[in-house]
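User: What would this chain look like folded?
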Amino acid sequence: MPKVVSADGTSIGYETHGSGPLVILVAGATQYRAVDSSSPKLADLLSNRCTWALYDRRGRGESGSTEPYAVNREFEDIEALIDALGGTAMLYGMSSGAVLALEAAASLPTKIRSVICYEPPINTAQSKDEALAELANMEAYKASGDGAGAMEAFMLSVGTPPEHVEGFKQSPQWADYARVGGTI
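Assistant: Here's the prediction, encoded as structure tokens.
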């Protein structure tokens, strides 16, 4: 698979489908190409209208992860893809990738032409103070190197019932999800 190198030297794996204007799919927190069978199908369906770039966000799949994690590095990853694949792009963000896509667009206004957000995990009933407290909780887990704790806190913060989180933690897939907890 092709790769680009981000500003901090991190290698980012990606694939493209189709031709035309560039659309970069910004995946959600736990999604990456090896476990996502639906995004390539979507890209293939729309490949006659645009070029779809599917990439593994840092710390997932074929992409590296340079510590310490910082969300601004993810903007640099998107910028590296844009620079390698055409100079400007549209972003299609899914779940937490939708929020990341909005933040990237604010950070890269001359390179990102538009953003489509699908199911951003934004709780409009939650106060800013409550959201910041949840964020601080996740950041504390990340700072201590506890990716599993950060993933659990994230899942609870977006409304996953506690009993579902506990059941998921017993599954064979939990280790893979916990590994990316430090990049949420």
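The first strand starts at residue 3 and ends at 5. If you want, I can go into more detail on any region.
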